[in-house]
Amino acid sequence: MSSTTGGHRRGKAVRDNVLTAALNELLNVGVDGVTVASVAEAAGVHVTSIYRRWRTREQLITDAVLSHLDPLSIDVPDTGSVRDDLIALLASLDESMSSPQNWALLRLATMPIEIDRLEEARRRITDERMTEVATILERGVARGEISPHVDHRLALEAMYGPVYARRLLTHEEVDEAYLAGLVDLFLDGIRAR
Amino acid sequence: MSSTTGGHRRGKAVRDNVLTAALNELLNVGVDGVTVASVAEAAGVHVTSIYRRWRTREQLITDAVLSHLDPLSIDVPDTGSVRDDLIALLASLDESMSSPQNWALLRLATMPIEIDRLEEARRRITDERMTEVATILERGVARGEISPHVDHRLALEAMYGPVYARRLLTHEEVDEAYLAGLVDLFLDGIRAR
Protein backbone atom coordinates (compact mmCIF):
# COMPACT_ATOMS: atom_id res chain seq x y z
CA MET A 1 0.00 0.00 0.00
CA SER A 2 1.47 3.36 -0.94
CA SER A 3 1.63 6.08 1.68
CA THR A 4 -0.77 8.17 -0.43
CA THR A 5 -3.41 5.43 -0.21
CA GLY A 6 -2.76 5.12 3.52
CA GLY A 7 -3.19 8.87 3.89
CA HIS A 8 -6.37 8.71 1.86
CA ARG A 9 -7.72 5.90 4.05
CA ARG A 10 -6.86 7.74 7.22
CA GLY A 11 -8.51 10.83 5.74
CA LYS A 12 -11.67 8.86 5.04
CA ALA A 13 -11.66 7.41 8.57
CA VAL A 14 -11.39 10.91 10.06
CA ARG A 15 -14.14 12.12 7.75
CA ASP A 16 -16.54 9.27 8.68
CA ASN A 17 -15.69 9.73 12.32
CA VAL A 18 -16.46 13.45 12.23
CA LEU A 19 -19.71 12.98 10.28
CA THR A 20 -20.95 10.36 12.75
CA ALA A 21 -20.04 12.62 15.67
CA ALA A 22 -21.79 15.56 14.00
CA LEU A 23 -24.93 13.51 13.41
CA ASN A 24 -24.97 12.34 17.04
CA GLU A 25 -24.57 15.92 18.23
CA LEU A 26 -27.41 16.93 15.94
CA LEU A 27 -29.68 14.25 17.39
CA ASN A 28 -28.75 15.25 20.93
CA VAL A 29 -28.82 19.03 20.83
CA GLY A 30 -30.60 20.00 17.58
CA VAL A 31 -29.31 21.91 14.60
CA ASP A 32 -28.94 25.24 16.43
CA GLY A 33 -26.91 23.68 19.25
CA VAL A 34 -24.25 21.87 17.19
CA THR A 35 -20.86 23.58 17.39
CA VAL A 36 -17.67 22.65 15.55
CA ALA A 37 -15.88 22.50 18.92
CA SER A 38 -18.32 19.96 20.39
CA VAL A 39 -18.13 17.80 17.24
CA ALA A 40 -14.33 17.93 17.32
CA GLU A 41 -14.31 16.84 20.96
CA ALA A 42 -16.76 13.99 20.35
CA ALA A 43 -14.77 12.80 17.32
CA GLY A 44 -11.44 13.11 19.13
CA VAL A 45 -9.95 15.41 16.48
CA HIS A 46 -8.71 18.97 16.51
CA VAL A 47 -11.04 21.78 15.44
CA THR A 48 -8.63 22.74 12.66
CA SER A 49 -8.85 19.32 11.07
CA ILE A 50 -12.62 19.85 10.79
CA TYR A 51 -12.21 23.32 9.30
CA ARG A 52 -9.72 21.86 6.80
CA ARG A 53 -12.53 19.73 5.36
CA TRP A 54 -15.64 21.85 5.99
CA ARG A 55 -15.49 25.61 5.70
CA THR A 56 -18.50 26.28 7.92
CA ARG A 57 -20.57 24.71 10.67
CA GLU A 58 -23.51 24.58 8.24
CA GLN A 59 -21.55 22.66 5.61
CA LEU A 60 -20.51 20.11 8.21
CA ILE A 61 -24.12 19.65 9.38
CA THR A 62 -25.36 19.38 5.78
CA ASP A 63 -22.83 16.64 5.00
CA ALA A 64 -23.65 14.82 8.24
CA VAL A 65 -27.37 14.87 7.47
CA LEU A 66 -26.97 13.91 3.82
CA SER A 67 -24.57 11.05 4.68
CA HIS A 68 -27.27 9.40 6.79
CA LEU A 69 -30.47 10.58 5.17
CA ASP A 70 -33.76 8.97 6.10
CA PRO A 71 -35.76 7.55 3.20
CA LEU A 72 -36.93 10.43 1.02
CA SER A 73 -39.89 8.76 -0.59
CA ILE A 74 -43.27 8.33 0.99
CA ASP A 75 -45.60 5.46 0.09
CA VAL A 76 -48.24 7.05 -2.12
CA PRO A 77 -51.64 6.31 -0.56
CA ASP A 78 -54.29 4.82 -2.87
CA THR A 79 -57.62 4.86 -1.05
CA GLY A 80 -59.80 5.35 -4.13
CA SER A 81 -60.62 8.95 -3.14
CA VAL A 82 -58.50 12.02 -3.87
CA ARG A 83 -59.62 13.61 -0.61
CA ASP A 84 -58.45 10.68 1.53
CA ASP A 85 -55.25 10.26 -0.52
CA LEU A 86 -54.32 13.92 -0.03
CA ILE A 87 -55.06 13.88 3.71
CA ALA A 88 -52.88 10.76 4.08
CA LEU A 89 -50.12 12.35 1.99
CA LEU A 90 -50.08 15.51 4.10
CA ALA A 91 -50.02 13.39 7.25
CA SER A 92 -46.98 11.51 5.88
CA LEU A 93 -45.24 14.78 5.02
CA ASP A 94 -45.86 16.03 8.53
CA GLU A 95 -44.75 12.73 10.05
CA SER A 96 -41.52 12.85 8.02
CA MET A 97 -40.63 16.17 9.71
CA SER A 98 -40.45 14.43 13.08
CA SER A 99 -37.27 12.64 11.97
CA PRO A 100 -34.31 14.62 13.40
CA GLN A 101 -32.42 14.41 10.07
CA ASN A 102 -35.34 15.67 7.99
CA TRP A 103 -36.03 18.38 10.53
CA ALA A 104 -32.37 19.45 10.43
CA LEU A 105 -32.53 19.64 6.62
CA LEU A 106 -35.61 21.83 6.86
CA ARG A 107 -34.01 24.14 9.44
CA LEU A 108 -30.85 24.37 7.33
CA ALA A 109 -33.03 25.38 4.36
CA THR A 110 -34.37 28.36 6.34
CA MET A 111 -30.86 29.68 7.01
CA PRO A 112 -29.31 32.33 4.78
CA ILE A 113 -26.56 30.03 3.55
CA GLU A 114 -25.70 28.66 0.15
CA ILE A 115 -24.58 25.06 0.11
CA ASP A 116 -24.65 23.22 -3.21
CA ARG A 117 -25.35 19.79 -1.70
CA LEU A 118 -28.22 21.25 0.33
CA GLU A 119 -29.73 22.88 -2.75
CA GLU A 120 -29.35 19.58 -4.63
CA ALA A 121 -31.05 17.63 -1.80
CA ARG A 122 -33.88 20.19 -1.73
CA ARG A 123 -34.44 19.72 -5.45
CA ARG A 124 -34.42 15.92 -5.12
CA ILE A 125 -36.94 16.05 -2.28
CA THR A 126 -39.19 18.45 -4.22
CA ASP A 127 -39.09 16.05 -7.19
CA GLU A 128 -40.14 13.16 -4.93
CA ARG A 129 -43.02 15.21 -3.51
CA MET A 130 -44.06 16.33 -7.03
CA THR A 131 -44.23 12.71 -8.23
CA GLU A 132 -46.39 11.71 -5.26
CA VAL A 133 -48.84 14.60 -5.68
CA ALA A 134 -48.98 14.09 -9.46
CA THR A 135 -49.78 10.38 -9.03
CA ILE A 136 -52.71 11.16 -6.72
CA LEU A 137 -54.05 13.99 -8.88
CA GLU A 138 -53.77 11.99 -12.10
CA ARG A 139 -55.73 9.11 -10.56
CA GLY A 140 -58.34 11.70 -9.51
CA VAL A 141 -58.54 13.08 -13.06
CA ALA A 142 -58.95 9.53 -14.42
CA ARG A 143 -61.85 8.98 -11.99
CA GLY A 144 -63.42 12.31 -12.98
CA GLU A 145 -62.96 13.80 -9.49
CA ILE A 146 -60.38 16.42 -10.38
CA SER A 147 -60.07 19.08 -13.06
CA PRO A 148 -57.43 18.07 -15.65
CA HIS A 149 -56.13 21.67 -15.73
CA VAL A 150 -54.57 21.76 -12.27
CA ASP A 151 -50.95 22.92 -12.15
CA HIS A 152 -49.27 20.16 -10.12
CA ARG A 153 -46.47 22.35 -8.85
CA LEU A 154 -48.85 25.04 -7.64
CA ALA A 155 -51.04 22.33 -6.06
CA LEU A 156 -48.01 20.96 -4.21
CA GLU A 157 -47.10 24.36 -2.81
CA ALA A 158 -50.69 25.28 -1.95
CA MET A 159 -51.15 22.12 0.11
CA TYR A 160 -47.73 21.81 1.70
CA GLY A 161 -47.19 25.52 2.45
CA PRO A 162 -49.64 25.75 5.35
CA VAL A 163 -48.22 22.58 6.95
CA TYR A 164 -44.68 23.96 6.75
CA ALA A 165 -45.89 27.29 8.12
CA ARG A 166 -47.39 25.62 11.20
CA ARG A 167 -44.29 23.53 11.84
CA LEU A 168 -41.75 26.28 11.18
CA LEU A 169 -43.49 29.46 12.28
CA THR A 170 -46.51 29.15 14.50
CA HIS A 171 -45.67 25.76 16.05
CA GLU A 172 -49.37 24.98 16.24
CA GLU A 173 -50.60 21.40 16.27
CA VAL A 174 -51.02 19.62 12.94
CA ASP A 175 -53.81 17.09 13.42
CA GLU A 176 -56.07 15.18 11.08
CA ALA A 177 -58.90 17.72 11.45
CA TYR A 178 -56.56 20.52 10.34
CA LEU A 179 -55.31 18.53 7.35
CA ALA A 180 -58.87 17.55 6.35
CA GLY A 181 -59.90 21.22 6.52
CA LEU A 182 -57.01 22.24 4.27
CA VAL A 183 -57.77 19.51 1.74
CA ASP A 184 -61.49 20.39 1.63
CA LEU A 185 -60.65 24.05 1.07
CA PHE A 186 -58.23 23.03 -1.64
CA LEU A 187 -60.78 20.75 -3.35
CA ASP A 188 -63.82 23.03 -3.17
CA GLY A 189 -62.46 26.56 -3.08
CA ILE A 190 -64.27 29.37 -1.32
CA ARG A 191 -66.55 30.70 -4.07
CA ALA A 192 -70.29 30.89 -3.48
CA ARG A 193 -72.08 28.31 -5.62
CA MET B 1 -32.81 63.63 42.15
CA SER B 2 -32.26 60.55 44.28
CA SER B 3 -29.37 58.25 43.41
CA THR B 4 -31.89 55.46 42.70
CA THR B 5 -33.52 57.56 39.98
CA GLY B 6 -30.10 58.43 38.59
CA GLY B 7 -29.22 54.74 38.49
CA HIS B 8 -32.51 53.98 36.82
CA ARG B 9 -31.90 56.69 34.19
CA ARG B 10 -28.39 55.46 33.50
CA GLY B 11 -29.81 51.92 33.25
CA LYS B 12 -32.36 53.07 30.70
CA ALA B 13 -29.69 54.92 28.71
CA VAL B 14 -27.57 51.75 28.58
CA ARG B 15 -30.59 49.72 27.60
CA ASP B 16 -31.59 52.11 24.76
CA ASN B 17 -27.97 52.26 23.63
CA VAL B 18 -27.66 48.48 23.46
CA LEU B 19 -31.00 48.03 21.69
CA THR B 20 -30.06 50.61 19.05
CA ALA B 21 -26.68 48.93 18.55
CA ALA B 22 -28.34 45.52 18.28
CA LEU B 23 -30.80 46.83 15.70
CA ASN B 24 -27.99 48.35 13.64
CA GLU B 25 -26.05 45.08 13.77
CA LEU B 26 -29.18 43.28 12.68
CA LEU B 27 -29.62 45.57 9.69
CA ASN B 28 -25.94 45.18 8.77
CA VAL B 29 -25.29 41.49 9.20
CA GLY B 30 -28.71 39.81 9.51
CA VAL B 31 -30.23 37.87 12.37
CA ASP B 32 -27.80 34.94 12.12
CA GLY B 33 -24.75 37.19 12.20
CA VAL B 34 -25.55 39.26 15.29
CA THR B 35 -23.37 38.32 18.28
CA VAL B 36 -23.56 39.67 21.82
CA ALA B 37 -19.85 40.55 21.56
CA SER B 38 -20.32 42.71 18.46
CA VAL B 39 -23.33 44.49 19.98
CA ALA B 40 -21.37 45.15 23.18
CA GLU B 41 -18.50 46.62 21.18
CA ALA B 42 -20.80 48.82 19.08
CA ALA B 43 -22.65 50.03 22.20
CA GLY B 44 -19.41 50.64 24.13
CA VAL B 45 -20.45 48.41 27.03
CA HIS B 46 -19.09 45.21 28.49
CA VAL B 47 -20.57 41.86 27.40
CA THR B 48 -21.54 41.11 31.00
CA SER B 49 -23.71 44.20 31.23
CA ILE B 50 -25.67 42.88 28.25
CA TYR B 51 -26.04 39.43 29.76
CA ARG B 52 -27.23 41.06 33.00
CA ARG B 53 -30.25 42.40 31.10
CA TRP B 54 -30.81 39.77 28.41
CA ARG B 55 -30.26 36.11 29.12
CA THR B 56 -29.69 35.10 25.51
CA ARG B 57 -28.68 36.50 22.14
CA GLU B 58 -32.20 35.76 20.89
CA GLN B 59 -33.88 37.70 23.69
CA LEU B 60 -31.68 40.69 22.92
CA ILE B 61 -32.55 40.55 19.22
CA THR B 62 -36.26 40.15 19.97
CA ASP B 63 -36.25 43.23 22.21
CA ALA B 64 -34.28 45.20 19.62
CA VAL B 65 -36.76 44.32 16.88
CA LEU B 66 -39.84 44.92 19.00
CA SER B 67 -38.51 48.27 20.24
CA HIS B 68 -38.39 49.56 16.66
CA LEU B 69 -41.11 47.57 14.95
CA ASP B 70 -42.29 48.61 11.51
CA PRO B 71 -46.02 49.23 11.23
CA LEU B 72 -47.82 45.95 11.67
CA SER B 73 -51.01 46.77 9.83
CA ILE B 74 -51.44 46.68 6.09
CA ASP B 75 -53.93 48.89 4.26
CA VAL B 76 -56.75 46.55 3.36
CA PRO B 77 -57.29 46.76 -0.41
CA ASP B 78 -60.84 47.41 -1.60
CA THR B 79 -60.95 46.90 -5.37
CA GLY B 80 -64.53 45.61 -5.52
CA SER B 81 -63.37 42.06 -6.34
CA VAL B 82 -62.31 39.44 -3.81
CA ARG B 83 -59.79 38.04 -6.28
CA ASP B 84 -57.99 41.36 -6.74
CA ASP B 85 -58.23 42.19 -3.03
CA LEU B 86 -56.61 38.88 -2.07
CA ILE B 87 -53.82 39.20 -4.65
CA ALA B 88 -53.07 42.72 -3.37
CA LEU B 89 -53.15 41.51 0.24
CA LEU B 90 -50.69 38.67 -0.48
CA ALA B 91 -48.43 41.11 -2.32
CA SER B 92 -48.46 43.40 0.76
CA LEU B 93 -47.65 40.48 3.04
CA ASP B 94 -44.76 39.54 0.83
CA GLU B 95 -43.58 43.15 0.59
CA SER B 96 -43.67 43.45 4.39
CA MET B 97 -41.13 40.62 4.63
CA SER B 98 -38.55 42.73 2.84
CA SER B 99 -38.28 44.98 5.91
CA PRO B 100 -35.21 43.85 7.89
CA GLN B 101 -37.12 44.05 11.19
CA ASN B 102 -40.06 42.00 9.96
CA TRP B 103 -37.69 39.50 8.37
CA ALA B 104 -35.75 39.20 11.63
CA LEU B 105 -39.01 38.55 13.51
CA LEU B 106 -39.88 35.82 11.02
CA ARG B 107 -36.44 34.19 11.29
CA LEU B 108 -36.61 34.37 15.10
CA ALA B 109 -39.97 32.60 14.93
CA THR B 110 -38.36 29.66 13.10
CA MET B 111 -35.79 29.17 15.86
CA PRO B 112 -36.39 26.67 18.65
CA ILE B 113 -36.52 29.33 21.34
CA GLU B 114 -39.25 30.40 23.68
CA ILE B 115 -39.49 34.12 24.24
CA ASP B 116 -42.69 35.50 25.72
CA ARG B 117 -42.47 38.89 23.95
CA LEU B 118 -41.89 37.13 20.61
CA GLU B 119 -44.89 34.87 21.13
CA GLU B 120 -46.96 37.93 22.07
CA ALA B 121 -45.83 39.80 18.93
CA ARG B 122 -46.64 36.76 16.80
CA ARG B 123 -50.15 36.67 18.22
CA ARG B 124 -50.64 40.41 17.65
CA ILE B 125 -49.47 40.09 14.03
CA THR B 126 -51.73 37.08 13.43
CA ASP B 127 -54.67 39.07 14.79
CA GLU B 128 -53.88 41.94 12.38
CA ARG B 129 -53.68 39.52 9.44
CA MET B 130 -56.93 37.82 10.53
CA THR B 131 -58.77 41.15 10.61
CA GLU B 132 -57.55 42.03 7.11
CA VAL B 133 -58.51 38.67 5.59
CA ALA B 134 -61.87 38.69 7.39
CA THR B 135 -62.67 42.19 6.07
CA ILE B 136 -62.02 41.12 2.49
CA LEU B 137 -63.92 37.84 2.80
CA GLU B 138 -66.92 39.47 4.51
CA ARG B 139 -67.17 42.03 1.71
CA GLY B 140 -67.04 39.10 -0.72
CA VAL B 141 -69.86 37.32 1.10
CA ALA B 142 -71.95 40.51 1.07
CA ARG B 143 -71.47 40.76 -2.72
CA GLY B 144 -72.37 37.07 -3.14
CA GLU B 145 -68.89 36.14 -4.41
CA ILE B 146 -67.82 34.00 -1.47
CA SER B 147 -69.40 31.19 0.51
CA PRO B 148 -70.46 32.40 3.97
CA HIS B 149 -69.16 29.14 5.51
CA VAL B 150 -65.46 29.79 5.03
CA ASP B 151 -63.32 29.43 8.17
CA HIS B 152 -61.34 32.69 8.21
CA ARG B 153 -58.43 31.29 10.17
CA LEU B 154 -58.04 28.32 7.83
CA ALA B 155 -58.32 30.67 4.84
CA LEU B 156 -55.55 32.84 6.26
CA GLU B 157 -53.21 29.89 6.69
CA ALA B 158 -54.08 28.37 3.32
CA MET B 159 -53.22 31.58 1.47
CA TYR B 160 -50.24 32.76 3.51
CA GLY B 161 -48.59 29.36 3.99
CA PRO B 162 -47.30 28.97 0.42
CA VAL B 163 -45.89 32.53 0.42
CA TYR B 164 -44.04 31.90 3.68
CA ALA B 165 -42.78 28.55 2.33
CA ARG B 166 -41.27 30.25 -0.76
CA ARG B 167 -39.63 32.98 1.30
CA LEU B 168 -38.36 30.75 4.10
CA LEU B 169 -37.64 27.42 2.42
CA THR B 170 -37.34 27.37 -1.33
CA HIS B 171 -36.30 31.01 -1.83
CA GLU B 172 -38.15 31.03 -5.16
CA GLU B 173 -39.46 34.26 -6.60
CA VAL B 174 -42.85 35.52 -5.44
CA ASP B 175 -44.34 37.47 -8.34
CA GLU B 176 -47.82 38.59 -9.24
CA ALA B 177 -48.39 35.56 -11.52
CA TYR B 178 -47.60 33.20 -8.64
CA LEU B 179 -49.90 35.06 -6.25
CA ALA B 180 -52.72 35.16 -8.84
CA GLY B 181 -52.32 31.40 -9.38
CA LEU B 182 -52.59 30.74 -5.64
CA VAL B 183 -55.66 32.96 -5.27
CA ASP B 184 -57.41 31.33 -8.25
CA LEU B 185 -56.72 27.87 -6.82
CA PHE B 186 -58.02 29.07 -3.48
CA LEU B 187 -61.20 30.55 -5.00
CA ASP B 188 -62.08 27.74 -7.38
CA GLY B 189 -60.60 24.58 -5.87
CA ILE B 190 -59.44 21.67 -7.99
CA ARG B 191 -62.63 19.63 -8.34
CA ALA B 192 -63.94 18.72 -11.78
CA ARG B 193 -67.14 20.64 -12.45
Automatic annotation (TrEMBL), chains A, B:
Organism domain of life: Bacteria
Domain HTH tetR-type stretches: 12-72
Pfam family, one: TetR_N
DNA-binding feature ranges: 35-54
Key words of the record: DNA-binding, Transcription, Transcription regulation
Classification via PANTHER family: HTH-TYPE TRANSCRIPTIONAL REGULATOR RUTR, TETR-FAMILY TRANSCRIPTIONAL REGULATOR
Protein's UniProt name: Transcriptional regulator, TetR family
